[in-house]
Amino acid sequence: MTRVQLTDAEWEFIGPYLPIGAYGPYPERLRYQFEGVIWRFKTGGQWREMPREFGAWSTVHNRFRQWRDAGVFEALPEGLIAEAAKRGEVDLSLVSIDSTTARAHHDAAGMHLGEDVITALEKAAAEEEKTRSKGGSLEEQSGQDVTADPEWEERRRIRRRRRLRLKAALLGRSRGGQTSKVHLAADRKCRPLAFVLTAGQAADSPQFIPVLKKLRVRGPVGRPRTRPDAVAGDKAYSSRGNRAHLRQRGIKAVIPEKKDQAANRKKKGSGGGRPVSHDADLYKERNTVERLINKLKAWRGIATRYDKTPDSYLAGLHLRASMIWIKDLTRTTH
To answer: What CATH number has the domain bearing residue 170?
Structure first.
């Protein structure tokens, strides 16, 4: 007998977000199927190994895909955050941003892409290469006849397609193999507010603004709040662009300055600009995002990526985030 994945109080928050078609399952079966999805991401097990009490594994998997494509897993945490904001339990006085790498299982590789999608990606990559090399590919600039050896050209095409598949699946290569990187924002109570998924080798600083743009807290009335009072991040996010973005929006930056940036600024003298202000006491609370990462990776299906498509892995991330918010909401309700 598998442990119960949801209590009745927790199901009350989830049930209204699950669409039921004209010929859909009964509500009790719907709950079992949703618990099956939780079981899969919590344990990291294969869909085929799912216990029978959740129903046929193929039915649960198809239901998961329907919910994923319908945007249920994105709407669920957004609605839960809105419910917490309605109760006055969302604290945006400080938002912490960080990233974590998720090792990809070898089964995560091999995402299926249609021939038309691959062709479009190849054309885009060729245009990007031509723009980067200013007028043509490296072979064309050197005068090399790229069509002289058909076998070499075929091997090159296969390698290029393999790279494009990994890029489309948001899988990158590092010393540990194929990885994906999760960029996230957390509030002062270790609760997730936004996610951005990239390939594992992606740098942190360029994703700072995209993560902030994902932050959206709907209140009882008025427009959603998208601007926290302060944002904390480590030295990886110390850049002029990020600081300028926060300054334009009236957000306090709690980001320490890198040593080389401080040295270059001092070297320029008065032309280097003012010293960067840094609230060391407020920066100590940045540990909330680190603790949130530990909470997220308590689920094995999040700590290791087993999903071929980035949409499925993101759905698991949003599901885990929803359960964190639900635990907090049910704790304050009773």
So the answer is: 3.30.420
